[in-house]
Each structure stands twice: as structure tokens, then as C-alpha cells.
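Hello, quick one for you while I still have it in my head. A protein chain has come my way and I'm curious about its shape. I'm sending you its amino acid sequence along with the C-alpha cells. I'd be grateful if you could look everything over and explain what you see. Here's the protein in full, and shout if anything looks odd to you:
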Amino acid sequence: MYGVFHIDNGVGFAVILAIILLSTKLFGLLFRKIGLPQVLGYIIAGLLIGPAIFGELCGYSLIGFAKEGGVDYNCLFLLSGTGKDGSFSLGTDGLQIFSKIGVLLLLFSTGLETNLKELKKTGLAATLIACAGVAVPMGLGILICLPFGNIGLGPENIYQCIFVGAILTATSVAITVSVLKELGKISTKLGTTIVSAAIIDDVIGIIVLSVVTGIAKSGAGEAANGFEAFKSTIYGTIIMIVAFFIVAIALGFGLSYLFRWLEKKWPNTRRLSVFSLAMCLFYAWLAEEVFGVADITGAFLAGIILSTAHNTREYTDKKVEVNTYTFFAPVFFANIGISSISFLGMSGWLVLFAFLAVLMGLIGKIVGCGAVAKCFKYNLRESTIAGVGMMARGEVALIVTATVTDAALGANALGSEFMLMTVLLILVSSILTPIFLKLLYKEKKPPEGGETVETTEEDATAELSEAVAAEPVSEPAGDASTN
């Protein structure tokens, strides 16, 4: 491994950050220009400046890693690896630390944007649609893993199969919201239900992730002392997870009242955002180190608690969003491309599995969410819209993947090569969701000299009835689901 500059000090690491910020901004703007999520641009930027493509496949890379094994290549900036004595390396470990802060702030911001009052108004429909949006993709994800024992899945690696299912549960409503706004449907009953269901979906998904990662850690090995040994058992893990939510929520009531008092005393001051960030990081530490729950769950819950303090939420979210999406989030997503994706030795079986898993992830949302919507007397087209609106994936899917591929899970961790599946899932769902939604909300062709007439739910139902009456045996060609 040869590098012109060895990155093992603060100034050198600043150059790496500068390269990451510049490349992610350029590719983020490019991807936004062509109608795709910026996070995909960030990951592609990481792939191009990291060793995955030009380093391992071409022999030259802008950024490389000093690590044993693998393919030797030349690079301009060489990130020093951790020494044999376990000493800290600013080059490699520093990038991981910045990425960790980025993922915590992303989940904290997501929690801040959760409106509990609006969720209460959506009622049972949004909650059950969200539950189906978690259960069906997760079940399909586990099933599709069973025949792939040759790539580290299969019945003998059940934790890894569950992790794949957990990745498929995530929903990103950003694309759906933008399309619904464009079509003028965001404030309709169906639009509100989809948005609320997507938020609830992420809450349930993160809880599921906390449970499965906690249980996976419990099966990773025996701990040294009594308390760690207790947490390493399955029943101990379940008790600690329940205890975390009880302690965090109970503490949250007091903190919520405290922040309401602070915002009256010092409205819209920086100290509120500083206190809020401290709470986020403390909750993340409490979750991971004390209770054995995923740290992102603690950050997310801290955001939800602070969302009850209205002024603090808005002010803090603005401040956090600037730092998160300007600095920490690009580093996190770029680091996925830099250090978590490698095409070297990638088997055809892994590529086949990735495509099948993506297919199951899309079908699971459409079928699961659509079926529940149909039970609440939405017609066929509306039910399909609900399913399609829930199938977009984004940041949360990447965060879940980063969590389940973490080495802290030991032998139960999912291989980092499965990040390819998540990237494909985001790419495909980001392209198909706007297309399908616009087709489902397609307008009727206007009569000559007349105005455009929008296809309403009642029109679609009437057309379906007429088609059934005309062709009672075959599938109706005018089915609203194909509009």
C-alpha cells in the first residue's frame, strides 16, 4: 500500500473532510437535479473518492486505507489504520467517529420532526398501515434469505436473516411528500394517512431494530462480570430493553417540562440547542452502554421527547439541521461508499440476492400497506397509492444497515457487502415511487375544447364496475390499479 500523504494528524484529517464535503455537495446537487435523493449522490461520491472502484479495481485511488490483506493500490491520501497495540488512529477511527455523530444527529432530527399530536389525529388506520409496512417486508425479507446459506444467510444464520428483514422495514416519506405536494394531494385524508403511517413505520422499525440487535448481542458471547453477563442473556436483554424505554420516557416527562420552562425564560437562544444536543448524546450513550439498546434509538427518542416542547423543537431543529446536513451527514453517507462498499470478490449470488431482496422490499410495502388500507374502505386505487407511497426508502434504511453491520454485534453482524442491497433499494424505490404515484393520480384526457378532468376515486370505482359488468370472466382491462 503506497500513499503520497499519510493522514495521521489533525491537519491531514481536515483535508480528508474537505474532500468529502466538496465531493458530496457536487454529487448531491447532481442527483437532486435528476430527481434522485441527495444521499445517493453522497454515497456515489464516497465510492469514487474511496478505494472501492479506482483503488481495488484500477490500482489508483484518491483516498485509501492502510490495512493488512486485500489488494495493494496507490493513493494520494492514505488513512492510517489502528496500530497493533489498539492505539487510536485519527485517519481511520476519526472518520468513524464523525460518521457516528452524523447518524445520531440524523435520528435526533427525525425525532424532532415527529408531531405526536398529528399522529394521534390519524387514528387506527395509519397505525395499522405502518404495522403492516413493517411486518410484511420483514417477513418477506427473512423468507428470501433462507435459500442463500452460501452467502452467510440461511436458517443457520437466523440473526443475519432478521437483520435483512429489519433493513427492508424502513420507509422514507420525503419523496412521497414532494410528489403529493406537486399533485396537490398532501392535505387529503389519504395523503395525511400516508405521511403519518410513514412516521409511525420508522418508530416501529427502530424499536424492532433495538430488540433484534439487543438479542443478537446477547448471543454473541459470554460477558466477564455479573451485570454484563445478565445483559448477555436473552431474557436479560428483553428486560433491559423494556427498562430503557421506561426510564427514558419517565426521564423525558421531566425534561419536557424543563425545556418548556427554559424556552419561556430564554426563548430562541443558542443555549437551548446546546442543551438539546447534550440530551441527544446522553440518551444515545444511555441506550448503548447502560441498557444495551441501539444508540440511534436513544437519539431518536430524545428528539421525540423534545418535539413536545414546541418552540424548542423548531429552534433546535433549524440549528441541528444546518450542522447535520452541512457537515456530519455528508461524512456519514460518504463513509458508506468509502469504507462499507467493496466490489472486490463480490459473487453473482450476492447480486442475485440483492435484486430479489429489493423486489421483496417493494412488494412487501405495496401488498402489506395496500391490504390494510383496503380494509379501511379505501378503494383499489387509493389502497395501491397507500402502498406505493410507503415503498420509498432513504436515510433510515442506510442507518439501519450501518447498525446491523457494526462489528459490535460480533459474529452475528451482517456483512458490510450487504450495503449494496440497501443502495439498490433506495435507488430503485426512489425512481419508481414518483412514477407510480403520478400514474395512479393520472388525469383523464379532456374532451376536445374542454378542460382537463381529474380522475377521482368515485370515477375510478365507477369505471371498475362498468369493466366488470362488461367482462365478468377475465381481469378488467380498465382496472383502476393500472391507471
Q: What stands out?
A: Residues 234-265 form the longest helix (32 residues). Residues 79 and 91 are 5 Å apart (CA to CA). The chain is about 65% helix and 5% strand. The beta strands are 2-7, 60-65, 74-79.
